[in-house]
Amino acid sequence: xxxxxxxxxxxxxxxxxxxxxxxxxxxxQIGQNQIVCIVGESGSGKSLAAHAVMGLxxxxxxxxxxxxxxxxxxxxxxPPEAMRKRRGxxxxxxxxxxxxxxxxxVAIGHQVAEQIRAHRSMFEGQALKQAGExxxxxxxxxxGGLLKAYPHQxxxxxxxxxxxxxxxxxxxxxxxxxxxTTALDVTTQAQILALIKRMQTARDxxxxxxxxxxxxxxxxADTVSVMRHGRIVESGDTKTVLGSPAHSYTRALIAAVPKGxxxxxxxxxxxxxxxVDGLTKRFRRGGLFSRAPAITALDNIALTLSxxxxxxxVGESGSGKSxxxxxxxxxxxxxxxxxxxxxxDIAHMKEKNLRPLRRRIxxxxxxxxxxxxxxxxxGDIVTAGPRxxxxxAKVARxxxxxxxxxxxxxxxxxxxxxxxxxxxxxxxIGVARALMLKPDVxxxxxxxxxxxxxxxxxxxxLLDDVRRQMNLAMLFITHDMRVAAEICHRVMVMRHGRIxxxxxxxxxxxxxxxxxxxxxxxxxPGRRTR
Amino acid sequence: xxxxxxxxxxxxxxxxxxxVFIVILVIALAAPLIFVRGPFTIxxxxxxxxxxxxxFAGSDVLGRDMAVGLAYGARISLLxxxxxxxxxxxxGVLLGATAGYYGGMVDDLLMRITEFFQIIPTFVLLMVLVxxxxxxxxxxxxxxxxxxxxxxxxxxxxxxxSLREREFVQAAxxxxxxxxxxxxxxxxxxxxxxxxxxxxxxVGNAILTESxxxxxxxxxxxxxxxxxxxxxxxxxxxxxxxxxxxxxxxIMVTVLALNFIGDGLNxxxxxxxxx
Lengths: 530, 275
Prior knowledge:
By secondary structure, chain A is an alpha/beta fold. Chain A is built from 20 helices and 20 strands. The A-B interface holds A 329, 331, 355-356, 358-359, 361-363, 365-367, 370-376, 381, 384-385, 388-389, 417, 419, 430, 433-434, 437 and B 166-168, 170-178, 181, 185-186, 189-190, 192, 271-272.
């Protein structure tokens, strides 16, 4: 008998939402000792389906139909108090952002112990001892110190391990993991996924894994269900679904996943437009009375960038790749070194002298939600740059309409506000804003990491198209090796503010010179099975 | 009608507040046309109850028409409230925005100045300022503006500190916009909601502060405000409730209307909450 049987589950949304039902007529089974994945894009209802099992639907949202059988009991019929006891003991959950899920002012040990004591009567000391044992099982070192530490003192991977320790401390039969690795670096992601898999085997537990990443599905799942607009469009054995998808949506999703195969050969040869040499940036910490040692975010970085070429900068969080982008475009002031833009050093130029040159280097930002001013219409946003450089407002607006159509948006876009658009559309607006100044250099800082895979593929194609059309030199910052392979001629791998290696994309992927690059490539989800 | 106005007036509380405020404003502006006599003219016996012949709001301790006093008082109270708030907003936004946007040394310096104003008991400072400048309408306005800007500066600075880290501000810098354009064109519109909300509260506060000044004899002796009416009638509070309650009600209704307007503006200014 399967552990969980979801039958025709329907979850309603409050009036005014973009659709009446978050989950519609979804059926799904989770067998004993099985890992089941629900995969889908944002807004597909996959998260709400999982929360319904946990009995933790947000206010205003409720399961309006169907049944969720857990060990033969219908969870939707169970009284709240029985359900509360079941949470943690029978069903446990881990979330995407462990920092948000942990209490920032309570020591780790107490948080894990509290979870145990909420269900079993024992003394604090006893619970703390158990907590320590759990953390040890999660592969965490120096457990004694960890128990006394606070969440902000831990790395993202450690926090997620603590969350898993908490979830597993009462030996639940089912673990629900809602995008557990989305906020983590690729190597950490691989470790956490391996840990979940190991725990699942060791403890005879079932796992319901929510993800948007087909690589993760391929690595982890026994069976998979694909969700779209609240409906499960396809379910089945992972090998079958991934190997020969029956539904056209599944096929589109799988096709959109970057394969990590290098698309572009060598860039057309031309003189470099940007030359960076000896670029160094330190961040000083501490206030007036305490001087902590400075952190070196960039250490003697050198690179060149030519017209028509895309240089990818890859690395994990904290590698300094975003700091590099911000120093090159002078959002940050570098401490040493030079940034030559056609021979002129802009690294230490006064803001007043730099302003006219700014139009030549433009940037596309990571967060499609915060990178557009919410109080301005798209027309005002896109024409702000040209107007600041003295272009006539009428001319700018006419050009803006053309530019928006170039990035695939209609002229009516001009009068609307950013919040009326989806993430992908907003990223297109961001690209249009950058291109309005006819730049020579475009810096893209993780431009697709906040987007769904299908949208990701479209935005990557757009960036590559405009790079070709306008003969741009593009500096592409990303943490995702697969994305870098898709769009870059050359790749530069960074770690702790230093360049590990730099070369043509195909070469780096085929013959990585450093262990670090090898580790990054090995951690790409879905690689092992492909 | 613009979508902003439509969005503002489709909120019943906001529309109600706006209507009440307009009525008070019209009465205040038209006071010399409605009433033949001035507010200081004695019209009959003191402390006549409301509804007495010819005196629908009664008379005060000196036998002056309360209705005339209330209408003329509205002129002074609103004038002081609105102008001193505008002044405080002006100073507060300028200093708060500068401190929040530039940070570092500039921020430290400006915030120490702000704290200097905050640690002094404000009303004592106000009394000193007004006494120093000679009591008059102008000195009351300047004094109230000078004691109320620090809270605006603090709020604006806080908003700027968080907003300047947003990517759209970085995008504006990359586009080559000048600092003034970024501060006033990009960031300030996003910081408007809290400014609008506290300014509606501040108008009410300024009206109250002016009353307290007038009560202490530091108001303009030649002008009648709601505050000076309450101050002047406090000895009659137990025998003639209307002498204090009516001007008090006027203050309350005005402040309430301003708060409704503030809330309505807050929602209507936010495109995301526009309906």
